[in-house]
């Protein structure tokens, strides 16, 4: 296998994009912000950390807004200037979508450091908080909010669904011990200014936070491209099923016939590397391996490493090591 010549552009400087760039220094890395957000540290802002704690500076080849991609002309409009590519890797992360909820104007999103700062201010003086969604984000957020009544409304049958059952059991126990009220199988029907309405009843809420509904964050495109939940549908090579010169990684990819793939830092890193290798001319399938997954609730850590369940100090060390590795990768770019 020989490396293909040609200009490769990476859109998005998150973990997937940075990992792709480190695999091929000749590629062009593009993002709108000179800082990368460390997702696990956004929760720390709720608890008083400075916004800078979750943002690490990175080196980009282009800093600017992606206005549109033209897959036929193979150009990207960045800050109003068309940049030609031979192959492109889209790794533009995720966004939250909750406008489908009736009364969404009364809902506070939570996905970035700015949201965390805003939320920290809004929590002052509040008594009842409702979190919509019992996934990874909702559970960690509930564990970070202190001295108020917190309710998690989860439409599914368990919190942390999609992960091993032990995650749900540990999460449920730890949150319950903290006094968090967890309502399962209880989808939201409407959010009002001071209440959240479900089929099971009404829940008082001085502040309603949405902690789910992550979708892809694909830039505008001149031509239609097959997507699922705003993520580009790719084959096992992470190659668009519509355009062979387009690859996707991290939260921007939906692997056709790939089954459930959790959106974790490990998956982002490995998919970014594999997308770049295949854009360079390799032909290797992406095989997801989320070998470590650690969750924090308050000051408690638990999760899996391989097939081993860990908790306490060991889980804490693994989580911090993973964050440190990510920070180091950013600084290497």
What does this structure look like?
The protein is built from 7 helices and 26 strands. The chain has 333 residues and is α/β, with parallel strands linked by helices. A 5-stranded parallel β-sheet has the order 5-2-1-9-22, covered by helices on one side. A 5-stranded parallel β-sheet has the order 11-18-12-13-14, covered by helices on one side. Helix 1 (15-23) packs parallel to helix 6 (265-279), helix 1 (15-23) packs across helix 7 and helix 2 (39-46) packs parallel to helix 3 (113-122). It is globular and about 55 Å long.
Radius of gyration: 20 Å
pLDDT < 50 runs, ≥5 residues = 1-5
**Envelope shape:** globular
Strand content: 25-35%
The total count of helices amounts to: 7
Distance between the termini: 26 Å
Total beta strand runs: 26
Helix content percent band: 25-40%
Write the layout of secondary structure elements.
Layout: E1 8-11, H1 15-23, E2 28-31, E3 35-37, H2 39-46, E4 55-57, E5 62-63, E6 66-70, E7 75-78, E8 81-84, E9 87-90, E10 94-96, E11 107-109, H3 113-122, E12 128-132, H4 136-144, E13 149-154, H5 165-177, E14 181-184, E15 188-191, E16 195-198, E17 201-204, E18 207-210, E19 214-216, E20 227-228, E21 231-234, E22 246-248, E23 253-255, H6 265-279, E24 292-297, E25 300-305, E26 308-311, H7 313-332
Parallel strand pairs: 1-2, 1-9, 2-5, 9-22, 11-18, 12-13, 12-18, 13-14, 21-23
Antiparallel strand pairs: 3-4, 6-7, 7-8, 10-19, 15-16, 16-17, 20-21, 24-25, 25-26
Helix pairs in contact: 1-6, 1-7, 2-3
